[in-house]
Amino acid sequence: MNKRKSKGNLMLALLGLVFVAAGLYLAIFNTDAQGVMLTLPFAFIGIGMGALGAAAGVRIIKNDSAQAKQAAIEARDERNIAISQKANSKTFALMFLVHSALLIFLAVVQVELFITMVFLAAYILMIVVRIYLGIKYGKEM
User: Fold this and answer.
1) Which of 18, 29, 36, 51 has its CA 20 to 30 A from that of 85?
2) Which value, to the nearest 10 degrees, does the dihedral of the CA atoms of residues 8, 9, 11, 13 take?
């Protein structure tokens, strides 16, 4: 691993520590929190722990060349790539149905129009990206 990636990994670990420390500080010392501030400390802790885990994983693979070789082989394996693409395709199909059901549910329970519009915008964006990628990949293949 070159020096630049090593510095990036160190920065990721430090950023994770900062997030965890900020989350713990807010959780312990901000006792009269309301609204978003009730959950923000725990979101910080979760983000920080994720960054620390990613940095630790990179360091473990860096120090074990056999494991690094195996991970590189698995990443390029055609079977794993096909499995990943099929899983992504099935996930998209499921999310398409979940978004549809969620939009209908939001309309039935008459939540604020803004919330419904945000979900509708996400739904339309998902459809537009799917159409764009379908056209793009159709031209490539």
Assistant:
1) 51
2) 170
User: Other CB atoms closer than 10 Å to residue 101's CB: what's the count?
Assistant: 10
- What lies within 8 Å, CB to CB, of 17 at 6+ separation is 48, 52
pTM, rounded to two decimals:
0.54
Residues 53 and 59: their CA atoms lie apart, in Å, by 10
Count of residues for the chain? Answer: 141
Q: How far apart are CA 132 and CA 124, in angstroms?
A: 12
CA–CA separation, 13 and 78 (whole Å): 32
d(CA 93, CA 77): 25
Reported as a single tens digit per residue, the pLDDT across 44-99 is 999 999 999 998 888 877 777 777 788 778 878 888 888 888 998 898 889 889 98
CA distances, 110 to each of 73, 95, 98, 113, 118 (Å): 51, 22, 18, 8, 14
Integer Cα distance of 50 and 38 in angstroms: 20
Structure tokens at 5: 């990636």
